[in-house]
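Exam review. A common question shows you a sequence with its C-alpha cells and asks you to describe the fold in words. Practice with the pair below. Do the first one on your own.
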Amino acid sequence: MKTIWKYPVLIMDEIWVYMPMGAEILDVQEQQGNICLWALVDTDKPLVKRKFRVFGTGKPVDLDYDELTWEFIATVQNKHVVWHIFEEYKE
C-alpha cells in the first residue's frame, strides 16, 4: 500500500533513516519547531537505510564527491538558521 510517512530530521552531521525501498522524498519543512521529511512510501517494500547530511548556511560542506554522489534534497528555515539537506547515493 502506498502512503505518506513523516520522518523527523535531527540536526546532526549525518542522519540515517530507515524507510521502505524506493521511497520518494516529497518535501522537508519545519513543523512546530522541528525539521520533518515527508516521503511517499510503499509499505509492502522492505526497509532500507538511507544516509542524509545536514549543513547550516555558511558552514563547511565536506561532501566526499570522489567516491559518493550527493543529491540536494531541500533547504529549510528553522528559527534563525537555514539548513540544507543532501542524500547520499552510489552510482
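Now try the second one, then compare your answer with the model answer below.
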Amino acid sequence: MMLPPIFVCGTGRSGTWILYRALGRHKNIHTFPKEMRFLVDPDGMIDLIDALTIRYHPVKASEALHRFERLMRVYLVTPDRTPYYGFDLPGWLGGEYYWQRLNQFCSCLVDLDFEGKALQIESDSNDEGRLVAYAKRLQALRQQVQRKPSIPESLTLPRAKMNVVRYFSERSRLVALAAAFVDDLFRKAAQANSKQTWCEKTPQHILDLNVLWELFPKSIVIHIKRDPRGVAYSLTKQKWAPSSLEGASLFLRNVYNRWNDLSRTIDLNKYRYYELKLEDLALSPESVLEELISFCGMEYEFENLPDISPAKVNYWKKIMSNQEIQSVNEILGPYIEQMGYEA
C-alpha cells in the first residue's frame, strides 16, 4: 500500500528547499529535481479547474485549456529555453507515459474539436501581424545597441483547431480527474525509483491549501517557517523579489496576510498539517526530522542528510544593521511575534 503524498510549502526563502532535500534522502520518499510548478503557477492546474467550473465561459475555458497544454507540452518540457529553464517533465515523469497520460487527461475535458478562430484571443489582422513583427525587430536592434543579451522569443503551441471544452457543474468530477492525472505521474516516478510515496515542494502551495486538499484530502502538508527578517533579507537577493528591505517586507506582508485569511477558512485539525521552524531544523536536524517523519507515519530511515548549518540560517543577524532590522520590524512586527519570534 502506497503512503500518502507529501507537500512542502512556505513563503519562499524560508527553508523549503533544504527540508525538501532532507526528505528526499528518506528510504520511502521520492522527490523531484525541481518544483512541479504546474499545479499553482499561472495557467496551471488550479487555473484550469476554476475556468471549467466556477469561472466557466466557453471562450475562457477553451483558452484556459490551451494555456495549460502550452505549459505542459512546451514550457515545462523544453529545458534549454525560458521561461522554465532546466525543466524536463517527461524526463522526470515517465517519458512516453507522460505524453500518453497528458493526452488522456486533456481529451476528457473536450467535447468536440472544430475549425474556427477565437477572435477575442487571436488576431485576424495581417496589419497587426506586421506591426508585432516590426516591434520584435526593433526590440532586437535596441538590445544590440545597448549590448544586452537577446531574450529568446516566447515558445508557443500552435492552435490548430478550436474546441468545445466541457463545463463541470459537479466540480468534484473534474477535481477527481485532475488528482488522478497528477498522482499517476508522480507515483509512477516514485515506483520507478523504488519509493513508496512522492513529495512535492512548491512554496506557493501555502496560499492554495484549500485547493491542494481538495485534490489530495489525505495528503500531508509540511509548512516550514523562518524568522521573517531572515526571509526578507534573503528575498532582496532574488531576481523575482524586490531588492530593497522595505519592498521585500511589503511583499512578505501580503503573503502573510493572505495566509492568515486562508487559514481562518480551513479547519487545519481536519487535515494532516505540520508546522516547523527552519531554525529548529538547523539546530537539531535529527530530532526534528524524527518527529516529522513519525507524523508522516514512517520510520526514521534517512541516509546522508544534507548539512543544515545554524550559521547559514541566521547569517542575516550579523549583516543587517539595527536600523534595517527595526524597519522590517515596523512592517512585519505582528507576524514576527505570531510565528514565535521576538520582534
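Model answer, second protein: The chain has two domains: 1-28+196-343, 36-194. The CA atoms of residues 22 and 186 lie 19 Å apart. Full marks require stating both points clearly.
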